[in-house]
Amino acid sequence: MKKIDRQVADTHGLPRKNGELVFQAPWQGRAFGLAVVLNEKGAYPWDEFRAGLVEEIAKGEPEYYESWLNALESLLLDRALVTRDEVERRAAEYKSLERDPVF
Amino acid sequence: MTHDHHGHGHDGHHPEAPSDVEARVLALESLLIEKGLLKSSDVDEVISAFEHDIGPMIGAKVVARAWVDPAYRERLLRSGSEAVRELGFDYPASTQLVVLENKPGVHNAIVCTLCSCYPWPVLGLPPVWYKSAPYRSRMVSEPRAVLEEFGLRLPAGVAVNVWDSSSDLRYMVLPERPEGAEGWTEEQLAAIVTRDCMIGVAQPKVTENAAAR
């Protein structure tokens, strides 16, 4: 079993039930996992992701993982790991079912 | 050997267009994979390490209650979503849960042939293999062979019904209560109901561990 990173586990506002993390839909789990894996692989320090997340939450997005996804996307764009153009194009391919939306 | 495929036609079925957030997550993940920054399995590992099987636990509690309470069992088979809510768990109104009863001579299993519809409110996030193309196609074309690969060999006289999930209709299997679990508490019973049992690729096993709880 993989070890849990305390720094990640202590991140502000992670939705929990009886102390355990809960995802209300598969995409939330994916968004969570992407941010954690990229940090583990050294793409950015966790503090940087967390700072962006806090900023996004402050904007008042109703759903925690939407803030999470916004923070992740901005960080990836800032660090030029992806470009806005390719993300938008790819997302459109999923929306139009040109690509199989399998979670 | 019988094999009934209860689809509901392919019109009306998935793949349904993902929501905006879903499409963005899919886009990011696929791009990051292409750039060699991560693998899908890395993400799966992180999720399962952090998510302590909250999902399957709900399904297991529902099954255990149905085993000890015949009236609840009836309600569960009549309306899965309602019966899940009755135990104090959330079940979204957007999809309907249909519970499939295994009984002597009938074994049920679930699949989503076109994408990865899964009863996640009761079973948590789907396992990687559930989303794989081979499972999605072979579970329909040769269910017995697939079940054997999972270690589940069913007698020839048992009918295997494979149910194809969709976005508004999700299935969950109600396994048969195994012999040797007489007089067990609901908690002991829930402990032997695994995710795979409720997908229909396994059957609950009576273990000494669970009996000693």
Report on the structure:
The complex is a heterodimer of chains A (103) and B (213). Chain A is mostly helical. Chain A has a domain of 69 residues. Helix content of chain A is 57%, strand content 4%. A two-stranded antiparallel ribbon of chain A has the order 1-2. In chain A, helix 2 runs parallel beside helix 4 and helix 3 crosses helix 4. The longest helix of chain A is centred in the N-terminal third of the chain and has 15 residues. Chain A is globular, with a radius of gyration of 14 Å. Chain A starts with 5 loop residues before the first helix and ends in an 8-residue tail after the last helix. The model of chain A has no long low-confidence stretch (mean pLDDT 87). With 213 residues, chain B is an alpha/beta fold. Chain B has a single domain, classed as Nitrile Hydratase, Chain A (Alpha-Beta Complex). Helix content of chain B is 44%, strand content 13%. In chain B, helix 3 crosses helix 4, helix 4 crosses helix 5 and helix 7 crosses helix 8. The N terminus of chain B is likely disordered. The interface between A and B is large, with 50 and 39 residues.
Task: Report the sheet with the most strands of chain A, covering strand number, pairing sense and barrel closure.
Answer: 2 strands, antiparallel
Radius of gyration of chain A, in Å, reads: 14 Å
Taking strands numbered 1, 2, ... along the chain, how are they ordered across the largest sheet of chain B?
Answer: 1-4-3
Largest interface: A-B, 50 and 39 residues
**Tertiary shape of chain A:** globular
State the helicity of chain B in percent bands: 40-55%
Percent of residues in beta strands of chain A: under 5%
Average pLDDT taken over every residue of chain B: 87
> Terminal Cα separation of chain A, in Å?
22 Å
Between the first and last Cα atoms of chain B, what is the distance in angstroms?
39 Å
Oligomer classification: heterodimer
Mean pLDDT of chain A: 87
- Count of strand segments of chain A: 2
